Sequence to fold (173 residues):
Amino acid sequence: MKFLNEKEAKEWLTKRGITADKNFNNDSLKKEFKNNITYLIPKDTGKKTALARIIADIINENEDGCYLITDFGIYPSCDNRDIFNAYRATIGESRQLIDIPCHIFTAGELKELECLIALTLFFYYDSILVESPQSSISLFKFSHDEYVSVYTRDDKKFYKFKELLEKFGLVTV
Fold:
């Protein structure tokens, strides 16, 4: 896994045709992606773990993918940065999250991605997950407000994601 600062992450995203604003607000994402849907994230920790696994499993990474944490520490009582930093250290990153918020992963690192997604769901961090390649790029936006939005430019992928997430039991907002 590679780790990038915010500027490097923006360059990585721009090379793949994502020019959304810094906060990846839903209105700017809807302009970039023709297909989108938003689901409530389950409150149960076990279901959050399972959701992280399902999303990591549906990623089809033949190229690098990106997991960018866009905000954290929103609810201090729910945050445990020590656990998060300890996990990042096990995958090779010892610098602070505020300095290095981006994780570039390959197909061989989807288990690590699953763990990162789960931890961000547990701690109510905001994040985005970008699946390449550019021609059929997809983006998942996780919010501390307990929703996940799915954006894609590819109709087939959109309906595949929608079917899997709804089979899991996610409810649209």
Remarks:
- Residues 40 and 106 are 27 Å apart (CA to CA).
